[in-house]
Amino acid sequence: MGIFEIVYWVALVVEMAIRTPINKQRRKEAMSERRVTLQEKILLFLLLLGMFILPLIYSASTWLDFANYSLPSWAGWVGVAVMIGAILVFWRAHADLGLNWSPSLEIREKHELITRGIYGVIRHPMYASQWLWVIAQALLLQNWLAGVVNLIIFIPFYFMRVKAEETLMFDSFGEQYREYMKKTGAVLPKI
Fold this sequence. Notes:
Elements: H1 3-26, E1 31-34, H2 38-60, H3 73-97, E2 106-108, H4 125-140, H5 144-173, H6 175-183
């Protein structure tokens, strides 16, 4: 395993370490609403395939070598920097969101609209971190299947999920969410 593959796997472990304690606590919370469609379940499975299963096959075997590509080493180092950015945004989003985070479209009974920290600048930092992740993945895992497929899967997931999530936020927080949208960008700060 090369240095860039190691960086990828270390980043994945760090991401799991950030999310696991919150996920354990979140499961104890009562949910007042859950909107999970079959389409979302399929896309989440495909993201698991692109983010974990294909990279694991790539790193643990030679089965996907036919799909390798080669980038200059500086591109791999750019991937390292982008991945660090992805992890930092991911960590900050979880730190600010706390128990209001959910892997699917859910509203807790005690849910609150978070507008502080990174959420004071962008509404969807989790997705911002995921955009950085899929770009870094293509630079770190130089293979069309292990490196690029996650990006291809994430694009429709992002557009489907953000639309559904914002509808849920409108339904739950109404005018408060509309005012919040005026002040923040989706995944990039509003200028």
